[in-house]
Amino acid sequence: MKLITAVIKPFRLDDVREALTEAGVNGVTVTEVKGYGRQKGHSEIYRGAEYVVELLPKIKLEVVVADTLCQAATDAILKAAYTGKIGDGKLFVMDLESVVRIRTGELGEDAI
Amino acid sequence: MIRFSHVGRGMLGLSLLVGSVAASADEAVPAINSGDTAFVALCSLVVLLMTLPGLALFYGGMARTKNVLSILMQVFCTASLMSVLFAIYGYSLTFTDGGSLQSVIGGLDKLFMVGITKDSVVGTIPEYLYFLFMLLFAAITPAIIVGAFAERMKFAAVLVFMTVWLTINYIPMAHMAWGGGWVFNLGVQDFAGGNVVHLNVGIAALVGAWLLGRRRGFGTPTLAPHNMTMTLTGGSLLWVGWLGFCGGCALAASGFAMLVMVNTMLASCAGALGWMLVEWQHRGRPSLFGAVSGAIAGLVAITPACGYVGPMGAILLGLIAGPVCVWSVDKLKPMIGLDDAFDVFGVHGVAGILGGLLTPVFALTAIGGQGFPEGRTLFDQLLVNGGAILFSILFSAITSLIAFKVAAALCGGLRVDEEAEVDGLDLSAHGEVGYKYSN
Q1: Which residues of A touch B331 (CB under 8 A)?
Q2: What residues does A56 pair with on adjacent strands?
Q3: A92 vs A4, A8, A28, A78, A89, CA distance in Å?
Q4: Each residue of A25-54: pLDDT tens digit?
Q5: What CATH number does the domain containing B220 carry?
Q6: A51 interaction partners in chain B (CB closer than 8 Å)
Q7: What is the Cβ-side half-sphere exposure of residue B299, based on CA atoms within 13 angstroms?
Q8: Is A44 in contact with B283 (Cβ distance < 8 A)?
Q9: Widest CA span of chain B, in angstroms?
Q10: Is residue B24 pLDDT above 50, yes or no?
Q11: In CATH, what number is assigned to the domain containing residue A71?
């Protein structure tokens, strides 16, 4: 099992969700986050005073998939989140040791 | 406020009737005109909307999340306190005969509103209505100063300062300009309070910003406004109310009053566009905050002029006021170096001075204005207006300094301590927070 974490531009969320559904992913956890990478933030100007906002709003997606679905899921995210402009985000894939469905007690891939 | 040449009677002329309700035997008993009464009553209501919630929301949006309630509270309570004080002594000292001191201050005949009854009349409206309309001017004017010392002044000090400032600044200024004092007799072209309201609060703002010092984090992203939607809501309510603020000064439901309202509307629109266009060209993006600020700048600039200019003059004045105020907040403010938090001087002070100086120019009949009193030239009127502006600056600076010093002495300083400022005034001063992000 794999835990896929993706940090993407907020406006790409709907497209990414649709792409994940088409790829066969059943569930996704979405969190509104702030952060920065190479993009380094943006400037806001209020009445001539310039404020550099270093932490930009992003969306963090967390998806748990079976190993067999990992490539399709990551491809779906990468394609749907892509704009080609700075700030498109990052994607991380990690091995997942265990998953438990709280309601039924199912374990592993059955719990996804 | 109102000073007519050939235009007609106005608030000032009528105000002189206050305190002399007992007409002589051969004078006709004054009659209430229901149309005038309804009109001024409506204007009064929208002027109240300017302050509550207009001004409070306008400023509230400019504050940080942790200070939003303190701003709302300061405006709300200032307006409440000023209203009560105006009823107790402000009205009498502003609008009754001061005897030997008439040139600078009114009298005590109507202290505690003694002598005002439901049958009292000022011009063609009930005196209670005249009182209410003037009270609302007294309520909003000091509250504008809150924007200068926002996010760092003790609440008690705010209330003490406002009390002293109303007493030694606003009331004498209002009497001198509107209550038959020496400024009134000069024939200054200042229809609705360019000097008494806007220039006055602008100078008070500079004094306050100087005495209180800069907010912690001044010039850093931490001071960015938190809610532009709130600022637009408040600014728009200010705009609505301003039509009543200026139009109501005619004290009559007349074509002249409609001219004043049209002028006010057009100057505001032009101010918004002027600021927006300059900012767009200069910064590459037109901002909402800029457009709203431009509208306010146009409204401030037209305040002295609205009874003397024509509609095209009003548009020109607004188009000038917007860019001038862009310059004042963008260039002049950094040069001065004071943390006038919400640009009270940059918008009210600068546009007030600009409007006062340009009123005679746009009052020229050749460009659709209402002209000057008989025998007076443009140069004469410019001298009179300029002199009144200079006096107002000096008077405001001195009295504001005294008011702040008194507040500091009585409250153990003006400024909250570092911990309270960092935590935010909402929690430290009022024990509340503006926003709860979870239940």
Answers
A1: 48
A2: A35
A3: 6, 12, 15, 11, 10
A4: 989 999 999 998 877 777 888 887 888 878
A5: 1.10.3430.10
A6: 220-221, 223-224
A7: 25
A8: no
A9: 72
A10: no
A11: 3.30.70.120
Q: Which residues contact B212 (CB under 8 A, 6 or more apart)?
A: B149, B152, B153, B339, B414, B415
Considering only CB atoms, A47 lies closest to which of B219, B285, B289, namely B289
Total number of domains constituting chain A: 1
Tell me the chain A residues in contact with residue B230 when contact means C-beta distances shorter than 8 Å: none
Q: Is residue B28 part of a domain?
A: no
A94 close to B (CB below 8 A) = no
Expressed as residue numbers, the domain containing B335 is: 34-417
CA pair distance B366, B357, nearest whole angstrom: 18
Q: Give pLDDT, residue B28.
A: 61
What pLDDT sits at residue B103? 96
pLDDT of residue B191: 96
Instruction: Please say whether the beta carbons of B185 and B101 come within 8 A.
Output: no
Across the interface, do B289 and A52 touch by the CB < 8 Å criterion?
Answer: no
Q: Are B5 and B93 in contact, with CB atoms under 8 Å apart?
A: no
Quick check: is B4 in a domain?
no
Specify if B425 maps to a domain: no
Its domain, for residue A104, covers 2-111
Tokens (6 digits) for B283 = 């910064």
Summarize pLDDT for A49-87 with one digit per residue, the tens: 888 878 888 999 999 999 999 999 999 999 999 999 988
Average pLDDT over residues B381-403: 98
Residue B21 has pLDDT above 60, yes or no: no
How many domains, chain B? 1
Tell me the average pLDDT across B90-107. Answer: 97
Q: What is the mean pLDDT of residues B278-284?
A: 93
Say if CB A59 and CB A31 are below 8 A apart: yes
Q: Is A43 on the interface with B (CB under 8 A)?
A: no
**For chain B, percent of residues with pLDDT exceeding 90:** 89
Among the listed residues A41, A37, A38, the one whose alpha carbon sits nearest the alpha carbon of residue A50: A41
